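User: Predict the complex with zinc ion.
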Amino acid sequence: MVKILIIFLSLCCFSGPIHTQQQLDFCGTDIPSQNWEKIFSSLINDFIKTHEQNSSQQFTEYTIPVIFHVIHSGQSVGTFPNIVQAQINSQITVLNQDYAGTGFNYDTYPANAFVQWAIDQNLPPANLDPFGRVKIANINVKFCLAEKDTLGNILTEPGIERINLNSRGWVNPNTFTTPQTLRAYFDGTIKLGSIWNVRKYLNIWISDKNAAVPFTGFSTLPPLSTLPGITGGGEGTETTDGIWSYSSAVGSALIFPGGIYASPNVRGRTITHEAGHYLGLRHIWADGNCLTDFCADTPPAFTSNTGFPSYPLNPGSCSNPSNSPNGEMYMNYMDYSADPAKYMFTYDQAIRMQTAMLNSPFRNQLGTHGLCIAVLGINNEGNIIPDGYFLHQNFPNPFNPLTEILFSIPDLTNVTIKIYNLLGEEAAILSDQVRSAGNHKVIWNATDYSSGIYYYQLVTEKIRITRKMVLIK
Ligand SMILES: [Zn+2]
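Assistant: Here is the predicted structure with zinc ion placed in the model:
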């Protein structure tokens, strides 16, 4: 009976006229099978046992190299759907903020959010913040733009492969008018013809779509076995694993106002949401009425939410367990609320994602592997171009700037970089000197500085990040 229900829900949610009419921010990811969830639950239990024995209780930090396959039909760079590097950079910034628990609007979390729910459910302290609220979790998963392709060649644009579909003989994705045909076309043709090693990269395809297709993104789920199709729940394969997003749903108009966006998907949360599926999360309403998403700290929801709800939303909409008086968690990234209205994952969702990173054969080898090392290239003068903004994992230690260091920063707000020595003394203050294609270029002439460890701190109107680098002469 449950299986029939799941099949029914799958059918209803891909073809239901109500959804196509109302939900522009609709997701086309498959609902996991019962068997997949059963295996995943067992892995989660193992993870929790191991995690509880670990006295530090810290999550492992992961960094996932990302390659965006930008599918276009001959448009110049900067013309939809062939969006510019800076818009894609802003998506990586969004992912890193959202997965650290510091995403846009996280500071608007209501003062009493889900406090009563936490008490009623007897949630353990690990799930709560100091105010007794359900905690906005730090997943400890980071994302970086791949700087090397599968052959080790340096990419002209970090994290980007631009593909003119005409040169491949491919049909424009915007000719497919149903979710099923669009997905089948990507899986059978575009993904097949362009996917990079799924054990090393998160593949994200972005393209145009037909207006009749109601969703802006879909993802594969993490496979839980190397045996293909064993759990049958929409898992990725060697030729399909990854995320698709509508081009105009990529990135943040706040971080990069010069991009091409379609309201309300203007804060990059489509890919935050899809990456949640990619790491094993389910929708907050579990694709049914008050069903479980297998996270004890997310209250049940009657159905998906849209727009800009306010707290508390729909208290009492579900019973057993009751979500009264705190209502539904519309601010969770796994709901359908408008991009700016979403700003959290929970601790139990973090455990699912950490479990996927540890166990899925297509996730458990993801790491920088030198693919995201921040050296973009060394020219004949010996200049090294590190990217101090988002490619911080495995920052080149040591590196050897004979003359100057160039930071490439995808941000249009006022930018300053401060350099500190090991004693914390300010060694230099740099402001943006060169701009090109939406990027700031900040140059540090390190000629007069001695070898040693330095810290560089990026300061913009929105963000302050400090990283370490080693200067050797
Ligand atoms: Zn979804």
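Residues 1-24, 373-404 have pLDDT under 50 and may be disordered.
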